[in-house]
Amino acid sequence: MARRETAELQRCEWATGASEAETAYHDQEWGVPLHDDRALFELLTLEGFQAGLSWSTILNKREAFRKAFDGFDPAKIARFTEKRVLRLLGDASIVRNRAKIEATIGNARALPAIVAEFGSFDAYLWSFVGGKPLVNRPAVRDAVPATSAVSDAMSKNLRARGFRFVGSTICYAFMQAGGMVDDHVTGCFRAAGQRRRNR
User: What are the residues whose beta carbons fall under 8 Å from the beta carbon of 91, sequence distance 6 or more?
Assistant: First the structure.
């Protein structure tokens, strides 16, 4: 698609006039159903790191995060030691927040129990929406909620299983990003039909 055609497409307000990275994220990923355990773990982790920051900041550091966290392989992250934590705290290419780094390691260590019970992280997460996206199609951005009863339930359950940085707001943003919730506004070209992730 030509750059001019891309620019003329009607998008959700947050992606209009955004950076190229944010526009590409909106056009290709946001709201597209994701069914890959590692990718879902990555997305949940990044949403946690985004708390208190802008999503554009996280997108700009995404590749650095992938490198720093071994491709978001939960098995590898679960083996991170204090020495590795200190190394991450010294890495200016990512968000250097000890609580979030330690939460990521703890979440990776809590993940195997979920996989053992549900067969996959994917099956567990999608069980909260009955296995298919919840399509809301709000008219305007202000009509998009920050949380929902589903994100409340996901947050509560994840916390009970030992996860951290998984508050209801984070979980709702995660569900939007991972396609469990489709909140593309009416009029957005993405509201006309889903794309498939390039994964």
Answer: 64, 68
* Helix, strand, or coil (residue 10): coil
Q: Residue 72 maps to which CATH number?
A: 1.10.340.30
Structure tokens given for 61? 């550091």
Q: In the annotation, is 124 catalytic?
A: no
| pLDDT tens digits for range 119-162 | 999 999 999 999 999 999 988 888 889 999 999 999 999 999 99
Beta pairing partners, 134: 181
Question: Which domain covers residue 115, as residue numbers?
Answer: 29-192
Over residues 53-84, the pLDDT tens digits come to 999 999 999 999 999 999 999 999 999 999 99
| Residue 30 is a catalytic residue | no
Active site residue 126: no
Residues 130, 109: Cα–Cα separation, whole Å: 26
- How many structural domains comprise the chain? 1
Catalytic residue among 29, 30, 47, 124: 47
The owner of tokens 């959700």 is 12
Query: Of 30, 55, 124, 172, which is the active-site residue?
Result: 55
> What's the chain's length in residues?
199
